[in-house]
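Sample pair:
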Amino acid sequence: MEILAANELTSGAAVYLDKHGEWQDSLQAARLFGKDETEARDAAIAASKATGRIVGVEIEEVEDLNGHLIPKRMRERIRAAGPTTIAWNGETFGRQHLDEDGHVSI
């Protein structure tokens, strides 16, 4: 199974395309594409790129573990969960969400 992952341009947040064609910051809301849905997946990529709101669209393989989507790549697991650092100068960091404009992930 595959999902589409990207970054929202204004916030830098990791986002996932849902079944309604909207980008959500929850990996669990992602639309699943089967191997036989490449045309629909590619059309969704093209439509997303045309908005100018989403950058870095990638196809990510996931597995369903008891109704919970788990990315196969460690990189995407980290992007979905948030920073791997616990604290910086006493400040803890959480996952970035849509439309937060305080900073942009690099």
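The chain has a mean pLDDT of 84.
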